[in-house]
Amino acid sequence: PKKVIHYPGVKEGIYLWELDARLRLAAPAPRTKARPAVYIRPEPWTAQYYKGSRDFLDDLIIGMKDSVDIVLLPRGKEQGKHYQDNKFEGIRVVTTALDIADIAPDCDLFIGAGGTMTREMAVLGIPTISVYQDELLDVDRYLLDVGAFLHRPELTATEALEHLNSSSHRPPNRALLEKGRAAYDMVKNAILNG
Fold first, then answer.
1. Residue 72, SS3 per DSSP
2. Fewer Cβ atoms within 10 A, N terminus or C terminus of the chain?
């Protein structure tokens, strides 16, 4: 029996096609925010595979916090404590898990140091910048090639704010979501029918 199944698209599309369908059916919430919301997912401090810098987003966050509402999504308690320091006063450090269905409609710009969440936001059409400091995975290079996000390892606050002001939500990447649905059906069929 085959142990490996190759599927089209990216892993995130396998489940995001269903979320996109739900988000499209939901009534859009009125946008009453005074300032844009920028969600930031820092680097994976404790991951063995990560060889990039630590705390490299500090200056970017400090440089942006007076212009936008920053929601920081730490990768653990230690990282969360780091961003609760007084120099980061005014940013919201999330201490519990947030559902992507809540993040996506509220997020005006997503800045991520790589990983699944960065790819999810890009596939959903949220303006996304990856600041990943190590060699990109093939899946990330693929998303760059289709224009789903930008990769700026040395991103500054000024550049991020300029990108925020010049970009807008795009529709989700329909091709990736359709491939995700096809992949979902392939995997489901393989599980149910052997």
1. strand
2. N
* CATH number of the domain to which 159 belongs: 3.40.50.2000
Query: Does the residue 107 lie in any domain?
Result: yes
| Residue range of the domain that includes 98 | 11-193
- Between CA 36 and CA 69 the distance in angstroms is 6
Distance of CA 134 to the CA centre of its chain: 17
Number of domains observed in the structure of the chain: 1
pTM (predicted TM-score): 0.91
User: What is the DSSP secondary structure assignment for residue 52, as one 8-state letter?
Assistant: S
Angstrom distances, CA of residue 91 to CA of 41, 61, 70, 106, 184: 13, 8, 5, 15, 37
Q: Tell me: the pLDDT tens digits for 32-57? A: 778 999 999 999 877 767 677 778 99
176 — pLDDT class (breaks 50, 70, 90): very high
- Neighbouring CB atoms inside 10 A of 171's CB total 10
Tell me how far CA of residue 68 lies from CA of 34, 36, 100, 120, in angstroms. Answer: 9, 5, 20, 22
The candidate with the shortest Cα–Cα distance to 170, out of 103, 108, 98, is 108
User: What H or E segment, with its residue span, contains residue 166?
Assistant: helix 157-166
Query: Could you tell me what percentage of the chain is helix, strand and coil, using 3-state DSSP and rounding each to the nearest 5?
Result: 45, 10, 45
Task: Identify whether 5 is part of a domain.
Answer: no
